[in-house]
Every structure is written in structure tokens, then in C-alpha cells.
């Protein structure tokens, strides 16, 4: 049976990468931002999605043309048979805490991207997959369209849109059975405490092999926590530590072999080759911090933020140190789109692109297109004047991604319950 998956609002490919590790095959990808789509395609060379008719930018160009969408659905089914899965994480800036702060007083109903879940529902109705997965940020659960609105009203509208999908399949009207849950990435072995809302729909004419019981996630539509302990930061990043980082400002080759199982996995190419000392290392470029900034970082690494000398204080927010090892309750951090949010556990600097990518589960061969980072306003646009354009540098692409291992756990579960 086909394991073809369509990846909508795909970003740089965290969900897609995890699903492919689980055993799915990406046959179509949609992503509005050209840098994020370039990242996705860079890492899928030689695949069907390199064809121009198998990827798109603005989903509205597809969903608002009924004839084009129908032709695309027929073409995909002709090539791959019944599509197994459609996934999508419509942009969440209007629902997340930091996104909300950057909307400059504009209400959520005025933000165009907040309505894109409807386009995902339209796409699903045309494709008629066996299942779909919608993912978003925790803030969606309590978001209101207007300040005077009711908490959770947007989430109810999202669920209504997906429950309203119906079509004729094999001579009968079918829709989707839907369940949702708030899951935490660390429960699936991911080295982050990253909450995500996952909504899963399974076509109502199917009889999935669901487990039952009150202790299972979303009535068996989503996988149980794996019980795998997330690796500690030192086990993730120690092989990348370069004692000469301040004089080099970029490390371009591995200085030593992998020191842990996680590192070896990150350094394994698709053909099974493990990158050894001397092999090319990408995206290990360091921020050029001023001396007083590095001094502040070193104090925080050694002593925390307490008793910080006056000359090292700042009116800006205080960065958190990525600990060498997690505490007894596991990870307390979440990968963000801002490189300045965290300090390396050993060196007085912010994490590199490669290090943040590892925390998200991207292997070292995974390439990222676009700028390394950019200014806050350019990342946010200015909705107050109708400027919705957002730059999407590498750190932002990584911070926005679904952790690869969380997506892989979801993918393996769906393959099992749908008997794919």
C-alpha cells in the first residue's frame, strides 16, 4: 500500500524528514517562503518534488483554482495510488506568544495566515487521503479572533473546518474521525520541552487498529510517549566543540570522531557513511560577540545571573544557558528562532546553526538556504501597515520546524494503525 505523503506549509522540512525516517515518501510539498522551500528541495534532490509540478509556494494559488486542484489530485493518485497522508502546520505567528507580541495591535482575524487552516481543509477534501495531521502551537488552544472574543474560539473553528470535510468515496459519503492532543516533544526522546498541538484525522471508511484505554494519547490516534530519555546537550554537541573558536570564527571540518550514539546518528549520511574527523562540517559559524558580551556570558555560565557585575548588566532579556546535562525533570528549553536566546553550556557564545539544527534532530548533512540570521523587524514584518512579508533566515527556519524525532514517532504510529 502506498505511503505517499503531501507536506503542506512544510517549512524547512522537520515534519517531512521525520515522516520519511518513519517510512513515508514525500510526493508533493507546499511552502510559501522561497528560502524555506529551497531548504526542503536541497535535501530532496533527485526526488519527485524536484519537479515543478510537485511543489508550490502560495497554497492559495492551488486551492482557489478548483480545476487546478482537482487535476493535481488526479495526477498524484494516478502516479502513487491512494495518498496515505497529508500533513500541515499553517503559519502560527498569530497564535504563538512571540508572534502575538509582534502583530503591532492587529487582531487575529486581520492576520491572513491565521485563516490558512481552511485552505488545508480544502486541499484534503480534494486529495482524500487516508489520514491527515494538522500541527500548531499551544497558543492556538486559547486564541481569540478579537480581544472581546471567547478563549478557544479559533481552535473550535479549526476543528469545525476539518470535521466539515466530506466527499464521495467508493460510492459513499465519508469524512474524517478526528482526535487532538497537546503533546510535549521531550516525551518522544526529543531534547526539548516543546509543546505542539496535533490534530489527527482518519478517514471514516477505514477501521484503524486503534488501541483503547484512558491512558493513551488521543484515543490511539497519536503515539504514546516513548519513554526514551532525551540525550543531554553534552551528548548532542560535545564533538562540535572547537577550543580555537574565537580565532577561527568558523569550524569547517570535524575535529574528532563522534563521541556518542546521538552524534554518530547526526553524522550518518543517507548511504550509511559516518562522517569522521577531517570531513567537511557545515553551518558551524560563530557569532562575533563583543568582549564585554562574552564576559557576561562566561559569568552566567559559571555563576548564573546572580551577582552579575554592574558593567556586565544589560537592559535586554537575559539569555538562558543550555545546560551540560538536563535536570531530573528533563529539558526545560525550546528551540527558538532567535539565536541570542541561549548560551552554549561551555563556551561564552550563542549556539551555531548546526548546533540548533541538532537540537531539532536535523542530521549534519541537512543544508539550509538563505541568510544565517536577520533583524527582528525583518523577521516579523509590520502588520500595522499591511506589511506581511517576513524574512526566514536559517535560525528561524530551524526554530519553526517540528522536531524530526517527534514527527518520526507520529509517522511510525500512523503506519502501524493504518496498516500501511
Mean residue pLDDT: 89
Query: Regions with pLDDT < 50 over 5+ consecutive residues?
Result: 97-103, 378-382
Strand arrangement in the largest pleated sheet: 3-2-1-4-5-9-8
What string, H for helix and E for strand, traces the elements in order? Answer: EHEHEHHEHHEHEEEEHHHHEEHHHH
Largest sheet: 7 strands, mixed
Can you give a write-up of this model?
- The model is unreliable at 97-103 and 378-382 (pLDDT under 50).
- Strands 3-2-1-4-5-9-8 form a seven-stranded mixed β-sheet, with helices on both faces.
- The chain contains 15 helices and eleven strands.
- It is globular, with a radius of gyration of 22 Å.
- It has helices spanning 14-22, 34-42, 60-63, 66-80, 97-101, 117-127, 153-163, 233-237, 245-248, 261-266, 291-303, 353-360, 376-380, 394-400, 404-417; strands spanning 4-8, 25-30, 55-56, 85-88, 131-137, 167-169, 172-174, 176-184, 195-203, 320-321, 342-343.
- α1 (14-22) packs across α15 and α12 (353-360) packs parallel to α14.
- The chain folds into two domains: 4-229 and 403-417, Vaccinia Virus protein VP39 (Rossmann fold, 3-Layer(aba) Sandwich); 233-322 and 336-373, no CATH class.
- Helix content is 30%, strand content 12%.
- By secondary structure, the chain is an alpha/beta fold.
Draw up the topology in text.
Blueprint: E1 4-8, H1 14-22, E2 25-30, H2 34-42, E3 55-56, H3 60-63, H4 66-80, E4 85-88, H5 97-101, H6 117-127, E5 131-137, H7 153-163, E6 167-169, E7 172-174, E8 176-184, E9 195-203, H8 233-237, H9 245-248, H10 261-266, H11 291-303, E10 320-321, E11 342-343, H12 353-360, H13 376-380, H14 394-400, H15 404-417
Parallel strand pairs: 1-2, 1-4, 2-3, 4-5, 10-11
Antiparallel strand pairs: 5-9, 6-7, 8-9
Helix pairs in contact: 1-15, 12-14
Amino acid at each position: 500500500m502506498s505511503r505517499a505523503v503531501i507536506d503542506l506549509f512544510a517549512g524547512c522540512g522537520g515534519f517531512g524528514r521525520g515522516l520519511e525516517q518513519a517510512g513515508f515518501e514525500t510526493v508533493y510539498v507546499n511552502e510559501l517562503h522561497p528560502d524555506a522551500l529551497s531548504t526542503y528541495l536541497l535535501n530532496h534532490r533527485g526526488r519527485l518534488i524536484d519537479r515543478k509540478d510537485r511543489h508550490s509556494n502560495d497554497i492559495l494559488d492551488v486551492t482557489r483554482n478548483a480545476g487546478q486542484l482537482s487535476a493535481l489530485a488526479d495526477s498524484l493518485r494516478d502516479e502513487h495510488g491512494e495518498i496515505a497522508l497529508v500533513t500541515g502546520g499553517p503559519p502560527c505567528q498569530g497564535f504563538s506568544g512571540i508572534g502575538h507580541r509582534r502583530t503591532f495591535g492587529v487582531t487575529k482575524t486581520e492576520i491572513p495566515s491565521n485563516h490558512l487552516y481552511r485552505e488545508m481543509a480544502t486541499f484534503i477534501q480534494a486529495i482524500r487521503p487516508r489520514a491527515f495531521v494538522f500541527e500548531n502551537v499551544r497558543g492556538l488552544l486559547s486564541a481569540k479572533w478579537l480581544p472581546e472574543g471567547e478563549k478557544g474560539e479559533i481552535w473550535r473553528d479549526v476543528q469545525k473546518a476539518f470535521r466539515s470535510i466530506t466527499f464521495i468515496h467508493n460510492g459513499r459519503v465519508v469524512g474524517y474521525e478526528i482526535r487532538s492532543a497537546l503533546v510535549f516533544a521531550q516525551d518522544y526522546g526529543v531534547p526539548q520541552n516543546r509543546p505542539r498541538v496535533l490534530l489527527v484525522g482518519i478517514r471514516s471508511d477505514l477501521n484503524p487498529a486503534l488501541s483503547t484505554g484512558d491512558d493513551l494519547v488521543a484515543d490511539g490516534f497519536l503515539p504514546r510517549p516513548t519513554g526514551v530519555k532525551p540525550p543531554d546537550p553534552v551528548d548532542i554537541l560535545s564533538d562540535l566543540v572547537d577550543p580555537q573558536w574565537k580565532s577561527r570564527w568558523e569550524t569547517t571540518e570535524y575535529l574528532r570522531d563522534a563521541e556518542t550514539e546521538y552524534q554518530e546518528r547526526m553524522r550518518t549520511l543517507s548511504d550509511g557513511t559516518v562522517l569522521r574527523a577531517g570531513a567537511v562540517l557545515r553551518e558551524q559559524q560563530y557569532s562575533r560577540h563583543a568582549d564585554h558580551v562574552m564576559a557576561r556570558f562566561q559569568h552566567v555560565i559559571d555563576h548564573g545571573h546572580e551577582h552579575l557585575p554592574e558593567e556586565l548588566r544589560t537592559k535586554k532579556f537575559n539569555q538562558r544557558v543550555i545546560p551540560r546535562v538536563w535536570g531530573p525533570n528533563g529539558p526545560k528549553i525550546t528551540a527558538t528562532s532567535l539565536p541570542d536566546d541561549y548560551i552554549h553550556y561551555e563556551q561564552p557564545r550563542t549556539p551555531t546553526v548546526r548546533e540548533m539544527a541538532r537540537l531539532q534532530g536535523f542530521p549534519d548533512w541537512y543544508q539550509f538556504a538563505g541568510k544565517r540570521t536577520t533583524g527582528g523587524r525583518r523577521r516579523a514584518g509590520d502588520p500595522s501597515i499591511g506589511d506581511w512579508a517576513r524574512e526566514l533566515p536559517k535560525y528561524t527556519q530551524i526554530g519553526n520546524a517540528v522536531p524530526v524525532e517527534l514527527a518520526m514517532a507520529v509517522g511510525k504510529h500512523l503506519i502501524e494503525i493504518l496498516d500501511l
